[in-house]
């Protein structure tokens, strides 16, 4: 019979290092995990223990993350602009409103 490797319990420091390595804010990681930012903050300040097997969850998440520096930029690009148009990476709106020709 083969034994399975024991899950490594992550601590607050390892969780912060993971976020830093992948350029994620607490809000970003919380959204990816489907939890609140407050939960991440509590784990990182040792107010609550990081759940067992979180290392496996983060390992799986890593496979789906874009390049570290692009993670935040991609979420900003896909978010709608205040007037309903999405912004491109250079900060310009995808769809400019039609020019006013002065005829009413």
3D structure, described in words:
- By secondary structure, the protein is mainly α.
- The chain has a domain at about 10-75: 434 Repressor (Amino-terminal Domain) (Orthogonal Bundle), CATH 1.10.260.
- The protein is about 40% helix and about 0% strand.
- The chain has helices at about 10-20, 25-35, 35-45, 55-60, 70-80.
- Helix 2 (about 25-35) crosses helix 3.
- The longest helix has 10 residues, at about 10-20.
- It is globular.
- The protein starts with 11 loop residues before the first helix and ends in a 26-residue tail after the last helix.
- Residues about 75-95 have low confidence and may be disordered.
Backbone shape: globular
End-to-end CA span = 83 Å
CATH arch. level architecture of the domain at 12-74 = Orthogonal Bundle
Q: What is the number of strand segments? A: 0
Portion of residues within helices: 40-55%
Strand fraction band? under 5%
Number of helical segments with 4 or more residues: 5
- Gyration radius (Cα, Å) is 20 Å
CATH topology of the domain at 12-74: 434 Repressor (Amino-terminal Domain)
Sheet of most strands = none
Mean pLDDT: 74
Series of secondary-structure elements, N-terminal to C-terminal: HHHHH
């Amino acid at each position: 019979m083969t034994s399975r490797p024991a899950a490594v319990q992550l601590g607050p420091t390892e969780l912060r290092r993971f976020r830093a390595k992948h350029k994620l804010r607490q809000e970003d990681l919380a959204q990816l995990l489907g939890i609140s930012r407050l939960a991440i903050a509590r784990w990182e300040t040792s107010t609550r223990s990081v759940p067992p097997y979180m290392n496996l969850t983060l390992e799986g998440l890593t496979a789906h993350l874009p390049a570290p520096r692009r993670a935040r930029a991609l979420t900003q690009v896909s978010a709608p602009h205040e007037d309903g148009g999405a912004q491109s990476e250079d900060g310009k709106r995808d769809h400019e409103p039609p020019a006013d020709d002065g005829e009413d």
